[in-house]
Amino acid sequence: MFSRSYTNLLDLANGNLSALDYCGGGGGTGGGGGGGGRPPRARRMQRTSTTPGTFADLDEDRAGSVASDAQSSLAGDRLIVVANTLPVRGERRPDGRGWSFSWDEDSLLFHLRDGLPDDMDMEVLYVGSLHADVPPADQDDVAQALLDRFRCIPAFLPKDLCDRFYHGFCKQTLWPLIHYMLPYSADHGGRFDRSHWEAYVLANKLFSQRVIEVLNPEDDYVWIHDYHLLALPSFLRRRFNRLRIGFFLHSPFPSSELYRSLPVRDEILKSLLNCDLIGFHTFDYARHFLSCCSRMLGIDYQSKRGYIGLDYFGRTVGIKIMPVGINMEHLQSLLQQPDLERKVAELRNQFSRKTVLLGVDDMDIFKGIDLKILAFEQMLKAHPKWQGRAVLVQIANPKGGSRKELEELQAKIEQSCKRINDQFGRPGYSPVVLVNRALSSVKRMAYYTIAECVVVTAVRDGMNLTPYEYIVCRQGIPGLDGSGGDRPRGKSMLVVSEFIGCSPSLSGAIRVNPWNIESTAEAMHESIASSDNEKQLRHEKHYRYVSSHDVAYWSKSFIHDFERSCRDHFRRRCWGIGLGFGFRVVALDRNFKKLTVDSIVADYKKSKSRVILLDYDGTLVPQTTIDKTPNETIVSMMNTLCADKKNVVFIVSGRGRDSLEKWFYSCPELGIAAEHGYFMRKFGTYLNSCLCLQMDQR
Questions:
Q1: Which end of the chain is less crowded, N or C, counting CB atoms within 10 A of the terminal residue's CB?
Q2: Which one has a higher pLDDT value, 578 or 497?
Q3: What CATH number matches the domain at 54-157+205-325+558-588, 3.40.50.2000, 3.90.950.10, 3.40.50.280, 3.60.15.10?
């Protein structure tokens, strides 16, 4: 079997230029086959498909839409923020007539607008789903109201699709994986379900349709958030080749050793590579992503002047490392609420003459609440002087759903709390106080204000802003009652897990491995036993960072790099190729000229001196051939090329000298560069080209 490349070389060597002119485009059957005047048949770049049926079954867009850049009705410079949920709270009015909506001021997406540069008159639109079950009859009115009042475009997913998309693929497949949990058995986490993946893809397609309805592809920036929408970049890039697409992952990105277990690993990576900029909280998360691209797709990154990028078919995909922050203005406004002082006084009275350690976590198997309680128990055993004095207040925000793991975890935590309180408690003193309900923002601020230390022992978490909020609350607000004697404002201590995203930015915190109960217990003891001066120094260091690296700083930094990553969009020529998640945009310089067989043949005829460099594997013989020995046709072709006095022909290969010499001993005029040029043969004689030998001789 011949490879296509060397059959063309054979035609060239034998002077059969007509075969090259038309690339095998023979005439029809029957008489009169004089084809000398036929124009060459145009070739189209071959398309590939990595997941047959996935897009074909779910996407009714025409094939011609691949290169479509048609504009929508809305125009102007805008930032379109796309996330699973909108930063809006909605509920039906008590009388059942209509809906009422308000901004969700606890949502990170709501506050990222503060990072827009002052000189940019940029409108912000939000696309996402609602935390409300809106009947189909009300959806049009609700959508119009949200667009008019909040500049929000809701994506209404059918309930069955939403269950398989969110509770299925997102929570049973992606969520455990990115938190380093593999489904070793059917009872341990969710096994991969193809129907859940198809629902995930379809949901992402519906999100893309909502984006496209309001999109101006020439001017708009699309910023996608978190793991719910990993497939969305492929849909948008497939429709608009030059669209500006950014993505930020608010969750961890797992090690390649875990990620490679995902059956749709390549599809998700290729979808993300359709973005212009991909953001991560920490260098470790970015490093894991780059390692996955290298090991699974063969794409290596480059670092230049502090920027990290991946060259993906001529496009540079930027990598941004920037941990998110809190909204300082919003938090300080909460600290100035009239009832905060009263709530702080109530808590100080409740925990009078006690040292409070605080935990604020969701009731989740990855938050390490059970490990924290065990470590506190160990601290009381190892340091009896704190019995009757130290209290661990654990606020456990309830999570939606009733998965078996959460029910077992909650029962285990309650059992541990009861055991510790029975062993170390006394009248008027409970060592562990479990607040198993959601608290208002003001009540949470009050707990932060009275806590001597905050403990975060998550075994894996994306960012976790609890330590940041605590630091700001401990800084204090003028006018807030500062009574409490040994708890002056401006002092704080943190015990944080080394497996959470905020850990690298809190250099003054005591970092722990939450699985090491004894070490965590000693860290708790150190945090409350440290001197006031030590607490003050650590607090000041943290507050300087938290106050300067807030959510506005994060948003502004991302948008700045987002703009920089998209500067060359309209300076390049782009072609969309591939099907399904194999789709990608090939970007080339505007001066790029595609080589054609006609131009090669014409230049070959006109040239007076030619150098022909040929690889061996994959060029002269197919890569898939087991027997690599060249046949007589290849040897004859080499001799024919070498017989032309205008040609200098070399085989450049990584193969050994002995093999190539044996195979082409009958081609004395053929040049051989064996072992990538370590041995050079010209006109039958090997040259002294070994650099190490030349250096030794000198």
A1: C
A2: 497
A3: 3.40.50.2000
